[in-house]
Amino acid sequence: MCxxxxxxxxxxVNDAGDFDLPGRLxxxxxxxxTKTQGDVRIVKVTGKLVMGPELSRLGATLDELLxxxxxxxxxxxxxxxxxxxxxxxxxxxxxxxxxKSGGSIRLLKATKFVLQTLKMxxxxxxxxxxxxxxxxxxxxx
Length: 141
Known about the structure:
Elements: H1 3-11, E1 31-37, E2 40-46, H2 53-67, E3 72-79, H3 85-100, E4 104-108, H4 112-120, E5 129-130, H5 133-138
Parallel strand pairs: 2-3, 3-4, 4-5
Antiparallel strand pairs: 1-2
Helix pairs in contact: 2-3
């Protein structure tokens, strides 16, 4: 095994450049991808939104976007099967920051569980939700 392969393995990266973390359970890893369409940032999240370092990483990603004045955010959560109170707190905190700077956070393709959870705690009305990316982006204009 060459030094580069060993370094990748220790860092949890396979040859394709993807994270491959041994010992982690299926669905534990949270994937966060950010792209831009016009003045809107689209953040695609895959995995469980639950308390822990992965949720902290999402909070840091959103905080960084907001700090850079990117306050129009579409959060694509189609592949988020579950959300806990810590994640809801993170989303509300980031939504508050976005609104203070004239922006907002839209939820895209929220799963039934996520919608029901937000509704149950009385916060669904805070987040405009969309099933279509172009509509979510257009809602900012």
